[in-house]
What does this fold into?
Amino acid sequence: MSEWWTYTLSDLLMFSRPTYFRLFALLNEAVWPAHLIAILVGLTLVAAILRGAGKAGRLAAALLAVCWLWVAWTYHAQRYAGINLAAPYFAMGFALQTVLLCWLATHRRAPAIASWRGPLGGLAFALVLAGLLLYPLLAAFDGRPWQQAEVFGIAPDPTVAATLGMLLLWRAPPFLWIVPLLWCAVSGATLMELRSPQAWVLPGIGLLALAAMFIARLRMRPLPRQHQHTSSTG
It folds into this structure.
């Protein structure tokens, strides 16, 4: 028997590229008309960003929590598990993110949404829109039928993309980023092995969001006392 370290990801995948993307067609057919609710949730997120108030932040976090739980159950546990032995663990990860988003929604301090008009806020808003608008179009760009479109709130990748944008707008604590960023790596590696043209889309979104988060945190750091004293006396 070969040692485990001699295996590559392609050896562990039990499905082909057509099988993987056909799963989204079966999912879309099974859950319709939940897409209409997903569109309404997406519009609510956009309205929350434009509004930027504390209550809007709580509502956005609660709605995202529902989306993560829905994806954990309907996609990972019920369907992806049929072709991927790791899918139950993915479902648990998405369920964990649901709990964390619920914590954010019910925390005593409402998650304030940063302004989307600045460079970082504009990037965060663009990531949310990528999850809502770009991902459903990737099927057509890849030459696949529209029935295989990945929709926010129903498929994992667009849900994660929009969530990363919201986390950046919230300046969310680091522990809220772990599961979304891990999924960026898992999804990107899977699609790379399947030779999908969209393999770098979600990892790219994750890297952009991560870099922007670090920049935002550097800007939020208080100035050293000596520098503050120099600035006040200058």
